[in-house]
Records
---
Amino acid sequence: MLDLTENALAILERRYLNRDEKGEIIESTEELFDRVAKSIAEIDLVYGAKEEEVAALHDRFYHLMTSLDFLPNSPTLMNAGLPLGQLSACFVLPVPDTMEGIFEAVKNTALIHKSGGGTGFSFSRLRPKGSVVRSTGGVASGPISFMKVFNTATEAVKQGGKRRGANMGILRVDHPDILEFIKCKEDKSELTNFNLSVGITEEFMAAVRKKETYPLRDPIGKKVMGVLDAAQVFKLIVEKAWESGEPGIVFLDRINGDNPLQHMGEIESTNPCGEQPLLPNESCNLGSINLARMGKDDGRGIDYEKLKEKVHLAVHFLDNVIDANTYPLPEIEARSKETRKIGLGVMGFADLLTLLGISYDSEEAVTVAEQIMKFINSEAKKASMNLAQDRGTFPQYHGSRWEKENMPLRNATTTTIAPTGTISMIAGCSSGIEPLFAVAYTKVCMDEDKLMEVHPVFKRLALEKGFYTPELMEKVKKLGSVSMIKGIPDEVKRIFVTTQDISPYWHVRLQAAFQKYTDNAVSKTINFPRNAHVKEIEEAYFLAYELGCKGLTVYRDGSREGQVLNVGEVT
Ligand code: UDP
């Protein structure tokens, strides 16, 4: 029997276990992990491994996942070893300024969503609203109207799917339609299947600081079409983010500065949750180490030997996924195999802190974050270099930054911090690098039942320290926070600090700490209390910029209806 929570089993049954044509479940949870382990291990045959080596690897991959030390992203769990075989979570598609190109991208988006992937786009290449369309003599309707077409297509494909189609839409801050873009979620019924981010440039940030204007440029030919007051645009972005959490921001120039593949062109977009900047037509598969399982048995520190072993095995796993993958389009297959990007990250960070007895909102937590991620990033690189010795470097290695740094890598990027929205539920740990959202919470899964869980580490600690009672657990479920409950020792309360009680400053500090040692980007929500002031959001944006983050997503409690996670019981 696998050590899975009821919540995890419910999720697996509902969406992950393989079914026959009649919709009947035809595999057990063990069989799911075996199917994935086998199909990913078998790739080693292509690289000359013997049958018995592959059998041993199959076994190791199986234990890597069933121990819940590591899980790959959802599409790999759902589809590996099955005819569909689409294993990646992240895609970025190009949107060119032609009618054919736009609708080709809409079609490709539908194909990717059907297979469980999420898509990101830059709409910055589209000519602005009101420009002349030469072939018809008419006027162009602009990027936002085309985004609505993508949104409607996503809505249609969602029906009957295992996973919501998710999109990221990015528009550069110097696109002439930027004001419409920033305001387009004022109507809450618009673009509901999109996350929106403004692509921020260094030129813009400099103008904000100096309180100057900055130019808007025609995407075609780059002619200056007007100017805007940078500080006012920045203020508008902040106000809208305060109202609805959107748009977020991505620091495009910074992303491109860090891009190890500058010889292949510019990165214009990320995947839907922002953690994976990609070139047009690139895809990436993610996987996350469960840090809740990387503490030493005596609770004193991190088991770095264990962590190292898991990182090496996980990198091997993710590199194999690139070959095992059935790609939705030939151009995506070609691009993805040229760069062989993988994104190894973490989940259960907040759980680990509880094991170590550290509060999330502390310098100690920042230090732990930097130490762990530095270690993972460096071991992931070593693992990727080991693979390159047998399998060769990624085909676009020549001309890349890695070549200049004399690091013969198998993968152009190795680390990414994903949100781990579902796989952390399967692993029964806190999601990604987020603080504990609550000590008990409900989660709406695909708009169905609300599932209730008390935090497993809290439960265990309550039993160990002898303050467990069913009544107390009920109270925790009801309130979602332990700060006001009597009978819980203060030191326990301190380490079970939840999102609502953590200031935005610490949220940003932790995001920056992980970003420092992550090749790609970090998915993180900077939570604000309901009564937060607009100014505080502005401060968080500046802090993120100063600390080297690649983007920022903020959320003010209660500002969006249909919130996925709710603190405590909803009655
Ligand atoms: N994603 C998606 N639809 C979803 C959830 C996720 O397309 O419903 C994509 C999206 O690109 C996101 C990425 O998967 O950025 C990783 O999300 P997460 O880590 O939450 O996925 P999990 O593997 O936990 O399901």
---
Amino acid sequence: MIAYIERFVHDNDVDSLPEPETAEEQADLSPLFNGVDLQGTVEFAGCGSASGRDFGGVQLSKPLALIRPANSDDVAKVVRLASRSPHLTVAARGNGHSVNGQAMAHRGLVLDMKTIEPKITVDPATAQADVSGGALWEDVLKRCVLGYGLAPRSWTDYLGLTVGGTLSNAGVSGQTFIYGPQTENVTELEVVTGNGDVLVCSKNENPELFFSVLGGLGQFGIITRARVLLQPAPDMVRWIRVVYSEFSEFTRDAEFLVTRAEGDSFDYLEGFVFVNSDDPVNGWASVPLDSDQFFDPSCIPRAAGPVLYCLEVALHYKNEDPPSAVDMRSERLMGGLRFVEGLRFSVDVGYMEFLLRVKRAEEEAKANGIWDAPHPWLNLFVSKTDIADFDRVVFKNILKHGVGGPILIYPLLPSKWDSRKSVVLPEGEMFYLVALLRFCFPYPKGLSAQEMIVQNQEILQSCIQNGFDFKLYLPHYTSREGWKRHFGNQWTRFQERKARFDPMAILAPGQKIFPRNW
Ligand code: FAD
């Protein structure tokens, strides 16, 4: 049977899909799982549908089977099954919110991690929660806050992502400048390695596996459980946006706020670039926080350029905090900032409402068809040294008409990232996250995916030609050379980790880093 399967898996080229197999051929695959004794289920027919797509909508693949594991043992059995064939691969699929096929396994096995019973067990005494790798962060939030008044410290903007999916990348948002990415906020993992072993790891137990897996792009193991650090959840959030016409003033204020002593700044800081026009999606209207707030363009200085900048901050507080104390704390921090007078927006919202803010955007986008259109997103970490030139070349020039969705930009501190983990960062004491979150109507109403991809390439080319120090976040390369450049002096370490924890290169083939049997 293994030999039979191999007929299907020799072709690893996602971009040249062969014709689908017949129903008989699909049915013939089922003996592969005979004697494997899974508690979960295996689906052959139609498995090329949802599990062969992702949020990006620009890659398609056809897995041989979609497996819905019931527990970590099932995950280990599937990895061991694949190891008995010279060609089978295994992709853990979280919520499939990658944009370049990273969670796909063309002619391989896809594990739907969400089907493992999502356990979220909170220990208030140690302020930690044990959560399954396939649990959605929004479920972690609800369980921790509603059940215990506790919450994870570090988030992503959107919470319809799985714990294992974001921990395989980093998981960044407006709290990262304080606590580091989500990968810095877990103390223990249970992992199924590419060798089929189920291991618990932490800084003290199997530390090399722990550091490898966090930010490891799914290359070294499948996270089946994570122990997440918690803190007391606030009740309310004061959410503030202010506008800048000068990039240098925007960065000065953002950098000032993220480098203040711990506990003496906002609890959240992000920023975004928007178009200096009445464009309803990319322009002034994207700034106000409430429908009764009005963006008055007459406040914008005459000398302002084609794009403006918005600094977004938030302050946590409890219901019992006197309003005057909350005002005083926020005004003290806002006091020295140099934003444009008259362009300040503020609302007070519940903590869960704040963290679930993108969910509302998701509902709207689903209703008007842009959630299901292609999303060729580009995420970069750009060194602080080059960010002013990046603004000149990219924001003010290539992107002066916007991207049809948010263009995030905010500073992060490498000192909050443990370099033993697998993520690679630009050099220096500070870098910026830049995220082009393209939300366009399906072509021909909006741009075609190809046009957006070409623009991404133009941006990357400009970065290279100008010698900018940058790294892709949620990286995507199709050549070994691309990956070697990405990891730079960490490439040898990354390869050694692969050789140790997944020597046959069974895991996460959609990342296209190591071919099976490299
Ligand atoms: P998938 O896309 O399913 O998987 C991603 C990779 O991880 C794949 O290689 C997969 O094989 C691997 N993987 C999945 N589960 C596991 C596991 N249990 N163990 C090991 N490997 C696994 N990112 C941020 O950092 N901050 C944000 O604010 C943010 N916002 C986003 C908003 C939206 C609307 C979207 C679509 C994405 C956003 N992302 C953000 C990116 C997101 O973090 C990544 O795309 C993440 O990989 C998606 O999680 P997922 O569960 O869908 O993973």
---
Amino acid sequence: LLAEDLDADHTAQSLLSDEESAFQLGPQLNGPDRPLPAELFVELFEAHAQRRPEAIAATHNDTRWTYRDLDDKANHIAHALLERGLRDEDVVAVVMERNLDWLAAALAVFKAGGVYLPVRPDFPAGRIATQLRRSDCRFAVTEPGSDAVLHAATADRDCSIVVAQETYGDDRRGNPGVPIRPEQPAYIYFTSGSTGEPKGAMCEHAGMLNHLFMKVDDMALGAGDVVTQTASQCFDISLWQLMAPLLVGGGTHIVDTDAQLDVTRFIDLLAAGGVQVIQIVPAYLDVMLSHLERDRRALGDLRSVSVTGEALKLGLVQRWFALYPGIALVNAYGATEVSDDTMHAVLDRVPDRDLAIVSVGRSLRNVNTYILDEQQRLVPLGAPGEIAFSGVCVGRGYVNDPERTRQAFTTDAYRPGTRLYRTGDFGRWLPEGTIEFLGRRDEQVKIRGFRIEIGEIENRLLQMPGVREAAVVIDGQSDQTKNLVAFFTGPDALQPADLRDFLAAALPEYMVPAYFHRLDALPLTENGKTNKKLLVGLAGTY
Ligand code: ADP
């Protein structure tokens, strides 16, 4: 069951005058209507591959693939999947490192009409198994070296595994020509879930294409432009970093994680020229700025730096423009459930409005944006409320998870027939029609851009034999120094290292707390809840 099955029975009673409602539903606060072209992503890419086969589509270290190379390889993988019986809307896990073959595999899944499910080969096999089970996945593409974890994760289920490199041949195979419908699901990204189980957000081809066009528009992407691919495979950002340039005859440059972690290497890459657009999280912008402030460098052809995933502090923007007044910053805001970003603030200088967190900007094409109260009524302009979106961007919901889908997705009472997603973020409209981000409703947090439900970590900790109570908080103020810290109660014999190993066996590395502290009892608030504020204070004292 997915979001489209939800009933449309609630009619929101308005708190506002007709005039203000009409304004809030009008063009000032919502994205412009821009019909999508008749062709979807695959056809648009294939048309480029046909027109300019020698243009560079993708590079990784010293390897360069032209549009023809990429198209050929993707066709080989796509045909292999189809020959194994892949049908429309079958889910295909792509278990690969970030490399050119990974790009070919993702493209191949789209070409074959499948649903792309990216999986990081360094994730624990148990977590991968849960994701495959949850999404009824019976096909996978992998590569030598990444296949072992896939075999472990599929030991108890029927899964047809294609090794990308084994499908490549000298013969050229045509485009599979599988027809794709706009409302067909394109991909699933699993995000952390507060109840202990990750949720698989499923989005459609139309939403994906709409988002890719937003990036093309606001980063002014054109033929020959290069975007760096830096985000993890399990982050939906990685999708546009790969695919948006391919819509316009540009290229993607895959940067290894090592080369990013060593920020001087990343800066060297930019300084060498040939990269026009990057997207990073605020923590990384902070790291880059710390280096560049000590050792200012010209950043080659860099034109646009998109920052996303977490609140962008004014201080970072001021520091950036002090060094690089000619390079735009784009604060990109959205969520996996709405096909990635839905709002952009395109900045070419420090904003006039003196907000500690810069606005997330305006709604993008075909995006309807709302700020709602708990009964889903529009709140007055300037009042805080929950940010919600409707339109083509809104995905199908969480795969095979009707309960959690129902909690976040509903039908749009103001535009009947469209799905609406409530982000769990608070915000308010600013007079110029942009939104100020005011934080989360729940315990979802971001660490270095990774989306984490604290509850998922706590639930897992409670499964550790001996652990009686567990609470996890964030310590550290700056984007760079933020850490997860776990507190637990239990017998003396329980050692932090055991807890760490226990979590590492089930959770991705970015969800394993940096520190574990045993307490005799967890502190409580007056009404008996775990006193997390106090724990945050305590975390800073160790
Ligand atoms: P994405 O689709 O951009 O990868 P995730 O699904 O990982 O995003 O996380 C979505 C959440 O991240 C949002 O609901 C919000 O809480 C936070 N977020 C994303 N971008 C921004 C931003 N520019 N400013 C503030 N918060 C952000």
